Amino acid sequence: xxxxxxxxxxxxxxxxxxxxxxxxxxxxxxxxxxxxxxxxxxxxxxxxxxxxxxxxxxxxxxxxxxxxxxxxxxxxxxxxxxxxxxxxxxxxxxxxxxxxxxxxxxxxxxxxxxxxxxxxxxxxxxxxxxxxxxxxxxxxxxxxxxxxxxxxxxxxxxxxxxxxxxxxxxxxxxxxxxxxxxxxxxxxxxxxxxxxxxxxxxxxxxxxxxxxxxxxxxxxxxxxxxxxxxxxxxxxxxxxxxxxxxxxxxxxxxxxxxxxxxxxxxxxxxxxxxxxxxxxxxxxxxxxxxxxxxxxxxxxxxxxxxxxxxxxxxxxxxxxxxxxxxxxxxxxxxxxxxxxxxxxxxxxxxxxxxxxxxxxxxxxxxxxxxxxxxxxxxxxxxxxxxxxxxxxxxxxxxxxxxxxxxxxxxxxxxxxxxxxxxxxxxxxxxxxxxxxxxxxxxxxxxxxxxxxxxxxxxxxxxxxxxxxxxxxxxxxxxxxxxxxxxxxxxxxxxxxxxxxxxxxxxxxxxxxxxxxxxxxxxxxxxxxxxxxxxxxxxxxxxxxxxxxxxxxxxxxxxxxxxxxxxxxxxxxxxxxxxxxxxxxxxxxxxxxxxxxxxxxxxxxxxxxxxxxxxxxxxxxxxxxxxxxxxxxxxxxxxxxxxxxxxxxxxxxxxxxxxxxxxxxxxxxxxxxxxxxxxxxxxxxxxxxxxxxxxxxxxxxxxxxxxxxxxxxxxxxxxxxxxxxxxxxxxxxxxxxxxxxxxxxxxxxxxxxxxxxxxxxxxxxxxxxxxxxxxxxxxxxxxxxxxxxxxxxxxxxxxxxxxxxxxxxxxxxxxxxxxxxxxxxxxxxxxxxxxxxxxxxxxxxxxxxxxxxxxxxxxxxxxxxxxxxxxxxxxxxxxxxxxxxxxxxxxxxxxxxxxxxxxxxxxxxxxxxxxxxxxxxxxxxxxxxxxxxxxxxxxxxxxxxxxxxxxxxxxxxxxxxxxxxxxxxxxxxxxxxxxxxxxxxxxxxxxxxxxxxxxxxxxxxxxxxxxxxxxxxxxxxxxxxxxxxxxxxxxxxxxxxxxxxxxxxxxxxxxxxxxxxxxxxxxxxxxxxxxxxxxxxxxxxxxxxxxxxxxxxxxxxxxxxxxxxxxxxxxxxxxxxxxxxx
Length: 1125
What we know:
Number of helices: 42
Radius of gyration: 35 Å
Low-confidence stretches: 541-548, 869-882, 918-923, 1095-1099
Distance between the termini: 17 Å
Keywords: Coiled coil
Structural class: alpha+beta
Oligomer: single chain
Mean pLDDT: 82
């Protein structure tokens, strides 16, 4: 019996309770302003601070000022001036001593400590926690302090009575009546405790600013030095680069630098800073040079100005530091991996030289060699350069062509007979060359700025210039006797008509103009009728199970027919008088007609030397590497990969008529500055609903005292009992107006319900989010977009509140339970969803608990209406991926993931995924993308983004909740007889005769194995993998061939697709192929977990086909009793 499944936040709570781990959920609560003036004032401040924090990171900001100076720019300019940071002023003094080659103060102090105590101390931890500490916070408690002090000792001594007594004494002496003693007394305490004068080196000179930064003289001042070079030159210090960049210890270095030091720079008080720097370092012999650098930073600080929502830029250090640190971590990691990839490419290209000798086609070999010779120097350069992002793009461009040529050469000349028998393709032979080459992450915001620049300055010029180039190519082609092509066949014309037919049937046209022309063409070749959905003009012969429809009108003169098509689609490049939909169609028609013309003129060449291709960077790269006169393959690449693809990208921008821009500000202490309010004076609704708001104080007339309202104010993140009742002016109360679904979290601050008994809430610091809707019109004469904020749509302000959901469970107990699972949830991807099977396996005995097929309406929408969605989609937020297709895909991912997790939690099962899936299995790459997105939360974490997804679902630092294994042959293993065609030993050299749609093969010991043969193969002989292909085609027939009684074919096709039934070629048993595969995958999960004793690592690979067969033969009665169809 299927268990009750969970939904919504009940499911989310169950996930966290199951793992015992906490997770964060941010909810955007809409705010209603007390009046229009307050909204305008606050909006202005949010926009100002956002733009000066990050620069123009949305299109409206970019349109206002594309060169807006920001705090991020100030940080980069500081690096150019030679600035390095440390999280504490004491740490900075230590660092400067090391850089100057002298013993640091903390080293000197540590040497004076009693030998017996020193022997037990962890030197680095002791220095960081005690010696370099600038004082214990007043909010610290004995428990947290005790934990920190315990880390000062080596691990082997932490449990000793002496150390525990020492730690207890320190903690209790420094915390008196719940608060830490004064910092000055803390220093005296440590001096007395250790019996020496410890802190004279670190005592503050109150006449000088305290420094967490230092201008390092050995770092040359370079005002325009690229960021990559700024980072690279820090390697010489052999010190954590994160700490030198100010990115460690919660960015506390910026607390001083963006506050006190920034203020001094803004006021131009350079001498004061110089004096402070010289007081901590003897390395500055050239004082004017130091002043020059500080003057540079002073001008930049004045250019930036001060924030409006708060008094100091330091209040934004967490959000700024977080973004920089995230980029830096990703950049550093990916840069190492890219260099490793490039080294592998270099080795692979060197080794390839021997294989290329086998290519007997001299022309082809010369092409490959030329590209190989172009790649090698690029590799040499990139492996030496610090910043090679531009060269990497060029390398990718050439590599793409090189791999295409190599693939053809491998199949025709290089592949050995043994490799052919093993079905090894070029990607396995040259694995390193064909693996995905990683990208180097650009500094955050750079990609957005580039896109905004394209949108504003390049979109219409690219369309205008590109269409003129395409028209020039078409005119040039039509002047070389294209109307008398020697090689056009009836088959070629039929293929082109089928292309037009497919476009028409899926409604791929964006305007009536070209749709009507296509209707005329199709009627001409279809006896005056339009083709029906199920009819085709042409199918490639290799496709099986397809009824080929004969074109009604005979094509007797292919040349004449191509000329007819070219005349019908005679187009003008004058796009300015066309609507955006017609322009989109215009590019598609150019692609079709130029394809026809090139097929007619295979020797045609075009000289592009007279064209300015700065708007087409890939085209410029192509010419740079292969010359300006292009023909054949490179001409096609120029037209279809460089010109038309660039135009299509710009048309995507051109078709936007509106978008939403977003500004986000989050500061330290925002829960104090913008606290949550509960309006206690108003009537409460049922279900514990309360009226909520936010306190945002604005200067101005607040009205009389009677305009005040009683509220509970929440400034404490965890202890909600401390909420105080106060009276607040109504003009400072911004009310929350939202759904019951969102308000439930706030109501839980007062009272829990049954579903929340095992979950605690902790509030985090909120952020303010402002959204505006902007419209776009286009000036086609000046070739520029005109952006304007929509008058009809007011600004939307949100209070984004992160909620920490903390399970009230013992994680260690939960972790042990997760490790001991003996129930498995196997998953297999079908055409329109995911099949699942839940099994409990104890000592090789299978108990089938549940099975079925998970689907979501969004999947069918993606499959059937993707073309319409692409045409109608409007970007929700400019430059984000939230297109209509992406939004529907996200809905499908969310829905399927929730269904999968609900089943897993209901049965406490380990989730087992397929390690990889193909387009054949899913009917397209979109389902494969959805499946991979679901899987990433439970299995592998290849990047920081994957980890974030997993932690959002299952909680922070969670255990891996599932596994993924090979799905090879899973849907082809019969749950009735436990056999699979993949076990057959087929002689590759033996020829097998056949005769009939269904044929019985005698393969090895198997005397009756059923296979299906295409009509084109009847009466012929086949061998090797063709035999296996025939058997596989029998095993996965179209549902029309195996229709169950009473079933509706059309409904089955909509629900499950065309090939979800498995028909065993051995015993003839019919079952659901997807559920059968899910059962197999679940069993493989069990086999993998219990294979440690059976298969030692490194000896041999686990044979899943054999192991599953043995397991299923033991449980034959159980499996045969289950009816999956």
